[in-house]
Amino acid sequence: MNLEKDTYKTIEIAVGDALYKEKGSKFIGYVFPIASEDDVKINIDELKKKHHSARHWCYAWQLGIEEISYRANDDGEPNNSAGQPIYGQILSKDLTNVLVVVVRYFGGTKLGVGGLISAYKTSAKLILEEAVIVKKTIDVFYKLNFEYKDMNKVMRIIKEQKLYIENQKMELNCEFLISVRKKNAFKVQQLFLDLRCLKIKEVTP
Asked: Where does the source fall among the domains of life (predicted)?
């Protein structure tokens, strides 16, 4: 993933049941949007209930936007014959915050390591081709504190820079939580600082 960009690609809706067959074995692909490692466990546990008689539930996931974490799991298949080919497809689509699982029902004929790599790679490719991939911006969040009398000055910048107000409290003293595309963050911060009538602080939402 290119760290210079301020966008990233992911999915928002889970997709499943992409079927691939090879020498009697069935490989069924699934992809899920995830926000944490806890989501990985929840989704895999659900698939194990759904496919309780399957032999393997191999998977790979990637999380994070600027600091990336990932894992590839062969779940009993020969080393690097399942999880890594699946992870390779996540990388080829340049995706993050996703989990791809391929469930295998053994068909009685061994495929060999090469055959397994091909089957898991193909299954992951098929399910990712079915998924709707969305591009999102990497945003910086600022908290603005100002007096109500300065509302017009603040709103002028918000409108001119096409900023999004995530949250607001409008009283005698006002508080806005705004989001700014990362590449515009420094410029926007300076515009608000130049007003000299508010406090601006970068926050984690």
From this structure: Bacteria
